[in-house]
User: What shape does this take?
Amino acid sequence: MPPVSAFLRTAASYAWRLLVVGAAVYAVFAVLGRFHEIAVALFLGLVATALLSPPTRRLARVVPQSLAVAVCLIGSALLVLGVLVLVGEAVAGESTTLVREFRAGLDSIEEWLEKPPFRLNPEALSDVQSRIGAFLSSHRSTVVSTALSGAGHLVQVLTVLALAVFASVFFLHGGDRQWSWFCAQLPEGARERVAIGGRAAWRTFTGYTHGIVIVAATNAVLVGLALYFLGVPLAVPLALLEFFAAFVPLVGSPVALGVAAVVALAAKGPLVAGLVVALIVVIGQIEGHLLHPLVMSRAVRLHPLVVAISVVAGAIAAGVVGAVVAVPLVSVTWSVRTALRGAQSADER
Assistant: This one.
C-alpha cells in the first residue's frame, strides 16, 4: 500500500475537525430552533439590561436597588407605549387622506407607465388589478385563516415580551451576583478564563447595543424630518420603521427607505420618490462613514464583508431574528477569542 502524502494527511485532519465543528453548530441551531422563543426572550432581556444598566446604577445611588430597577423598567415601558400611541394617532389621523392620495397616486403611476419610455399596455394594468381581485376573492378563506393565526402569533409575542421583562428584572437587580455564582460552579481551572471571556462578551454586547440604538435613533430622526418636509404621508410611522430596520446592519435601513419611497411614489409622485431614493444614499453615507466609525468602532471590529455575510447567514438560519442577532453574536464571539488569546499570551510571558 503506497504511503499517504503529508498534504493528504493534513487535509484529512482539518476535514474531520471541520465536520465536527459543523455538526456542533448545527446541533446548537437545532436546539435554539426548538426553543427559539426562550432564546429571543433572553436576548431581549439582555438588550434591556444593557440599555437600562447605566440609569439604574445612577438611580440606585439615591434609592434602593429594587426601586431603581422598577422605576427604570416602568419608565421605559411607558416611553415605548407613548411612542406606539403617537404612531397610532398619526396613522388614524392620516388614513383617510392617505387612502385618497394613494388611489390618486396609483392612477398617476398607471398613466406614467403608459407613456414613454415604458409604453405599458393599459389593458395589462387593468388585467393585473382584476387578477389581484380574483385572487383575493378565491383565497378569502386563506386570508381569514392567516389573520386568525396572526392572533396566535400575537399571543406568542406577548409571552416572549413578558419573559424578557421578567429576565431583565433579575439581570438588572443581581446580574453580577448571578454571573459570579455561575463561575463558582465551574472547575477551578476554567473559572478565570470563563470570567475573562464573560467580561469581554458583556463589554462588547453593551457597546454594540448602545451604538446600534444611537445609529437607529439618528437614522429615524433624519428620515422623519426629511419625509415631513417633503410632505410624505405617515412620516412618523415610516421613521419608526426606519428605527427598527436599522437593527439589521447594511440591509434594514435601505429596505425601510424603499418602503418610504413606494409611499412617496404613490402619494406624491416620482419627483418626491426620487428625492427619497437620494435620501437612501445620503443616510447610507452618514451611517457608514460617520456614525459607525464614531459610535461603534470600539464595540464592533468586524470587516464590512464579515458583517454582510453574518446578516445573510443569520437571515437564512433564523429569518429576521437571525439577521438581528447575527452581528452581535459574531462580535461577541470574536471579542471573547481576542480576550482569551491576550490572557494566554500574558500567562506565557
